[in-house]
Amino acid sequence: MWRAFGELDAQRQFSESGIPQPIQHRDVEAWCRTMRVSLHPAEIVAVLALDGERRAVEAERLAARRPRDVDLEDDDP
Description:
The chain has three helices and no strands. By secondary structure, the protein is mostly helical. It has one domain (about 1-65).
């Protein structure tokens, strides 16, 4: 399961803004077929859950790097 997640994570696509795209069931299926590994359905669910956590952490990291909105109201009376 860890090996599957690590290899799928390393091969994932990213949007133009750097957001990691989710691992799809078809990605897991292709990995299993290519590697000749059979994952139990619960292991596939776990791989996809790890993916969700990984993407959440990356989203927080990207949000922290974005400049904060600045209040552009004029300070003059």
